[in-house]
Amino acid sequence: MKQLIFLVLFLPIIGIIAQEKTSRELSGGIVLQKTQNLYIENGVGLDYTCDRLLKKKIHIKGTYLSSRLGSAVGSNAIKQDYFILGADYRFFSDKPLQLLAGLNTGLFTADYEDAIFDDLPSTSLLLAIETGLNYKFKQIPLSASLTIGYNVRNGNGVDIPGSLFPVFYKVGFMYRFDNLFNK
Fold first, then answer.
1. 132-164 pLDDT, tens per residue?
2. How far apart, in whole angstroms, are the C-alpha atoms of residue 148 and residue 57?
């Protein structure tokens, strides 16, 4: 099931990349998320932009995050997975330091690992707003971002998993595959 969700979220990005004939950027890397008062979730992300997306001001991104790669390693923390697809607008996109504002959606799952918790909700659609800073290094094909976000749909424990907290912080390090497209 998780592989299918991953493909559904990332295939549209691959389709866009294949059709473009303009200057474009694809970045991939690691993303670290800290949910306020709860878990650390780590994972991987992709970021894509091109001239047709408002001259590289719009970035389409996909991320997989999991507490399995964070707080749940070697502990009894709830194993949570996030499958995220989003877009953000980059202010000052021609400068190294960029301000960003975006909207994310996707799927959240919680694996409670015990049948006693089967009556609790374990999945939810995600809807989150996010803002922060991105620094694009000039000498090396690397960018770093620091963002804060708010899950509009957050957990109440009744119909949305209670471990889906509203406020989160993210740090991302992305490698730009500049030579992949621009030859």
1. 999 999 999 999 999 999 999 887 767 777 778
2. 19
Q: Which residues pair with 106 in a beta bridge?
A: 84, 126
Q: What is the pLDDT of residues 19-43, one digit of tens each?
A: 546 788 999 999 999 999 888 999 9
Q: What is the 3-state secondary structure (H, E, C) of 38-72?
A: CCEEEEEEEEEEECCCCCCCEEEEEEEEEHHHCCC
Q: What is the DSSP string of 67-127?
A: GGGTTTTTS---EEEEEEEEEEEEETTTSSEEEEEEEEEEEEEEE--SGGGTTS--EEEEE
Domains and CATH numbers, the chain: 2-9+24-168 (2.40.160.20)
Residue with tokens 């918790």: 117
Burial of 41 (0-12, 13-18, 19+ CB in 10 A): buried
Q: How far apart are CA 122 and CA 101, in angstroms?
A: 29
